[in-house]
Amino acid sequence: MATQRVTIPFPKHPKYGDDEVSAVTALIRSGSLSEIGRGPAVTAIEDAFAALTGTTHALSFNSGTASLHGALHAVGVTPDQGVAMSPMTWISAINAAFHAGSFPLFSDISADSPNLDPAGINPSNCSAVLATHAWGVPASMERFADLPVPVVEDCSHAHGAVYRGRSIGSWGVAGCFSLQESKAVSGGEGGVLTTSDPGIYQRAMTLGHHPFRLEEELTDPELVPLTEAAASYKFRMPALAAVIARVQLRSLPDRMRNSETNLAHLTQLITEADLPLAPVPVSDDTVRGWYGTPFTVQIRVSDPASFFAACKAAGLPVRALYADWLTSPLMTEPRLIERYWPHMRGRWMPPGKHDFPNYQRFRRQTILLKVPDVPSPDYMEQVAATLAATLQSLLSSGMKGT
Ligand SMILES: *Cc1c(COP(=O)(O)O)cnc(C)c1O
After folding, report:
1. Beta-sheet pairing, 126-132 with 151-154
2. 8 Å CB contact between 135 and 294
3. What are the catalytic residues (predicted)?
4. What is the rounded CA–CA span in Å between residue 26 and residue 28?
5. What is the pLDDT of residue 398?
6. Going by CA atoms, what residue is nearest to atom 6 of ligand 1?
7. How far apart are CA 358 and CA 377, in angstroms?
């Protein structure tokens, strides 16, 4: 029986500090919380995201989901050809394909990462690819480059991440970031689309930004007639969210460095102890993002739910994987899809359960550990010792080695 537990509270700073409070106070005192054009708060967060990703444009939204809707609309997805994606993502990314008038076309992840495998995509079936950098592990973006369809990145787990020397959010025709509170950069709620294509930027803007902003910024002759009355989804980011996220972005590099140090320390401890566990690796010229770090368990996990429960009971900082969307009623019952998205009438084919072996294996063999973003050497030592005890007790209680 494992008696070793994590007793040190999860090390962290308050989610919002004095700088966020000052920014919010100053904004309220300004008397202007709703920027219908590209006002100062919105300009600051958009410019900061363009700088972070090295893109020429960034467009703020009131959620990450809305930014995905905007991006897929902008690249021109169709009801006849789906959006290729893996099921290893948040449900909003899946539903954004429906929002934009298309549908998700599920494809398996790679054997060695939680991310969509481009080799499984049939480009003649899809009008776009949506690649999530799941759990902060950047997708192998160069492998998508040969596909003749636009690639949108879902960067919601990977703020500040870099793949092979180039920022996440700049590889695809558009990158989409969530600023929801659980994410590495929070505005409370919010989303940002990054792109270096002015056409994508303008088309995404026509979906939910104010006529005042459209008037200021639309130049594309096809879009200019939409200035006064575009699609009006009302996707603008509230100024409050924008100023909070702007402050959060300033501390991101420091927090990422601390997380790296903590992960390196933990990795060293589990290697020294010879534990059958390793973080999903990234190459040297790649910087991971932070939203729970995936570790592969190198012995067969026959009962992932009990293993997760044992980790939790031992106080380990585990984050649950998302539900298996492939088996959710929304994905398996066509009448539900048709009720919410009438363009799918008579068209929805529920995904086959057995078509995603790498995804199923990842779900069974992975634990997600939250890595603190403040210096935490003692905590990491307790986590390593507790992982050792938990793996040992599960091994002896019937998990078979392979
Ligand atoms: C959080 C998240 C979203 C949605 O973002 P919201 O801001 O909550 O709308 C989309 N995709 C992924 C992968 C996410 O984690």
Report:
1. parallel
2. yes
3. 183 (proton acceptor)
4. 6
5. 60
6. 64
7. 34
Q: Which protein residues are within 6 Å of ligand 1, measured from CB?
A: 63-65, 89-90, 92-93, 132, 154, 156-157, 178, 180, 191
Residue ranges, comma separated, of all CATH 3.90.1150.10 domains in the chain are: 252-324+356-396
Task: Report whether 174 contacts 168 (CB < 8 A).
Answer: no
Determine the residue of 156, 176, 177, 192 to mutate for testing ligand 1's pocket, defined as the one with the most ligand atoms within 8 A of the Cβ atom: 156
Q: Which residues contact 328 (CB under 8 A, 6 or more apart)?
A: 91
Per-residue pLDDT at 2: 47
CA distances (Å), origin 112, targets 137, 140, 149, 282:
11, 11, 24, 10
Provide CATH code, domain 18-247: 3.40.640.10
Token look-up 């079936």 returns 125
What's the Cα-to-Cα distance from 152 to each of 37, 83, 180, 272, 322, rounded to whole Å? 25, 10, 19, 40, 21
* Total number of residues shown for the chain: 402
Residue that is written with structure tokens 């009971």 in the block: 313
Fold type of domain 252-324+356-396:
Aspartate Aminotransferase, domain 1 (3.90.1150)
pLDDT for 265-313, tens place per residue?
A: 999 999 999 999 999 999 999 999 999 999 999 999 989 999 999 999 9
